[in-house]
């Protein structure tokens, strides 16, 4: 892991601890670290969480939009993560913390052709 990734995690975790009082232990990296985005799996006082840092200038607006979309999905009965923290980290980075849903990521559909053949009204 590069020093930049370690340094960003340390700053993110320190800011979360200062704001929320949660001491988070990083369990691993989710996805590929990118120049403008990092995602980590962590554990601490709020349980197992996903921590995402983004250097996208629109990250705050996207988080607002995503919160509304998740609320609508939840109203329809879908499980959704709880947004625990969403705020700027510094002048470049924006960070959010959300609960991790149980289960494993879907790698591929077992029978994608059958799903495509299913009328959308029965979904």
Characterise this structure.
The protein has 123 residues and is an alpha+beta fold. The protein has one domain: 2-Layer Sandwich (Phosphorylase Kinase, domain 1). It has three helices and five strands; from the N terminus they run αβββαββα. It has helices spanning 3-20, 59-75, 112-117, and strands at 25-29, 37-44, 47-54, 83-88, 94-99. The chain has a five-stranded antiparallel β-sheet with strand order 1-2-3-5-4, sandwiched between helices. A hairpin with a 7-residue loop joins strand 1 and strand 2. The longest helix is centred in the first third of the chain and has 18 residues, at 3-20. The chain is globular and about 40 Å long.
How is the secondary structure organized here?
Elements: H1 3-20, E1 25-29, E2 37-44, E3 47-54, H2 59-75, E4 83-88, E5 94-99, H3 112-117
Proportion in β-strands: 25-35%
> Got a strand count?
5
| Percent range of helical residues | 25-40%
Overall residue-averaged pLDDT value: 84
Compute the separation of the termini in Å.
42 Å
| Overall form | globular
The largest pleated sheet is described as:
5 strands, antiparallel
Superfamily (CATH H level) name: Phosphorylase Kinase, domain 1
Assign the CATH class: Alpha Beta
Count of domain modules: 1
Radius of gyration over all CA atoms, rounded: 17 Å
CATH architecture: 2-Layer Sandwich
CATH fold category name: Phosphorylase Kinase, domain 1
Please give the count of helices.
3
**Low-confidence parts lasting 5 or more residues at pLDDT below 50?**
none
Major sheet: order of its strands?
A: 1-2-3-5-4
Structural category: alpha+beta
- What is the string of helix and strand elements? HEEEHEEH
